[in-house]
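As a next step, we paired sequence with structure tokens, yielding the entry below.
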Amino acid sequence: MDIDLSQFTQVFFEESLEGLEVMESELLKLNVQQPDPETINTIFRAAHSIKGGSATFGFNQVAGFTHLLETLLDEIRDGRREMTANHQDMLLLSVDLLRNMLQALMAGQSFESPQQQELENRFNQELSAVAGVEEAPDNASQSNEKSAAKVSETKDSETKESETKETGLSWQIDFHAGADILRCGNDPILMFNELAELGELKVSLPAQELPEFEDLDPESCRLYWQLQLDTEAPLERIKEVFEWVEDDCEIHYQQLPAKTQLVEGVSPQEQAPISTSAPDSQGAATTAKVESGKAVAKTAETSSIRVSTDKIDMLINMVGELVITQAMLGQIGQQERIDDNALLSLQQGLEQLANHTRDLQESVMQIRMLPISFAFNRFPRLVRDIGQQLGKKVELILKGEETELDKTVMEKIVDPMVHLVRNSLDHGIESPAVRSAKGKPETGRITLNAFHQGGNIVIEITDDGAGLDTGRILAKARDKGLVGAEEELSTEAIQQLIFKPGFSTADSVSDLSGRGVGMDVVRRNIQALSGSVELASTPDKGSRFTIRLPLTLAILDGQLVRVGEHTYVVPLVSIYESLQVESSKVNKLSEEHEVIRLRDEYLPVIRVYQEFNHQAQAKEVKEGLVMVVDNNNQKVGLLVDELLAQQQVVIKSLEDNYAKVPGVSGATILGDGRVALIVDIPGLVTMSGLNQTQEHAA
């Protein structure tokens, strides 16, 4: 029986990528001078799991490379080798390489990289060096004794290895597979393939008692194999092939004189070379395609998410409540006559159905919510590498890592966050010498903070660097023609110039900046998520970028409004209030723009019907309703004809199903089947030309 392991490969990839994240995180927080043994063990276990899993699935390139990491880590954790900064750098580079290997496997592509050979050479050179030569000099006497012992041990090992290479060894391996080996996704054939790479392998399947045919369980393995391996490899290397299953199987090793027959009484015909097909219905089947000795995995591009059992239990409870309510409504529907009592029960049942549906909807949305730590975890490595590249000392502080965000939003916000952090490292944080001259600590600080605010998530990226040089920004803007030669702007308006397309203050092109694209793309990508980005900066104190995003892109609480014969949805979290405005409180600035006085402030008003080219009932402010909404922390009034109901709406992408429409972030289907467009407030403000008016007024 063939067992398809492709159903397990996606789990392997996910767990391996998580293991790499663990390795990277632990390596970054590792104190090289005083390494914590448990941290080293955690890194070792992650590498060991990846190596074992990749060997099981036939991903020999990954298994072979990870074996080098595992060997080095094993020597470090056993005290045979001192941890160094060079080891830390090698292991971090290896994490990157393994991540690329796994992504290539997931895409069904071959992987070739000159960095792999370079790293392998570095590992082999390091492992071939005498362990312990980098002992600290302050432990002189003990260090000398340890070093002498280790040198002697190494020489003995080398002597034994040289003897092995000269004479070769023959091993008999009795492999009694555990009954559940196949259920766990392990394939003995793949292990035998790996053994065959170590030397000449012969496989025998001796006669053994098997159940009657009607009692056979195709997923239960009842076989054992006898193997003979003629190899120059040491026993420890042979055992590594089986270490993934050694707890579930019975394995015996016996050294034989070289070139000895496998077992007396077994004919050479029975000692057939290894085959990649199953020996019989009770044997293990080959589950990966083998081409030129390399296993190739083909997996569909899928995205998955890990969910806690508490969330699943809540979802199951909600479904149970829905089933009960449906049964109650079904009983009412079977009645021949609907009297007042039945009508009351029907109304109550429909109310319960509405409540349960909303609870179910919220439970389903909770499944998509993940801690933002999944996004934050990539920044310690980014800050470390770029800081070293720029010669800057930087400390990264993470706050609010447990704040939850929709997985889809999180995936799309990472790139803008990366650009903002790189911007802080490149333009914000000063060099140690400059900071010392300013009386600052040599080590700069970048803080990532996330928290919920209303129906949004707020992400703050703060640095204690130089802040924005408004004089330089204004000069660059005038050179580019973005600002008139005599035009005066406020400090806030000058700072906003960095979001203009093509604007950059960098004097030269580098990997980090100066390509003329950047902050405008950041703002556009954030606005595409129905979010906003704000900037606050103080010279020599630092800068803070504040990103506001909806918790999810799938559902929002909306206020339905009517504009002429059309219905629109305005996000409820963006609405401050709605009111009728008297004529005396309306001031006209031009033919196209007017403001209203609301208590102690003046708010610009956008006539929605004009921007969307509709025939409206209320063409003047005094004739309709003004809805006061938030636009990047500034209040704006929207003139509409009428307020309708409030309801949760499921967001459908217009861009995916039709085309991108200015001033509209998506669409939804109402209860009566009509389509309503969801208003994109920042986009609508841009359409109206209000942004340019405010900037020039400032």
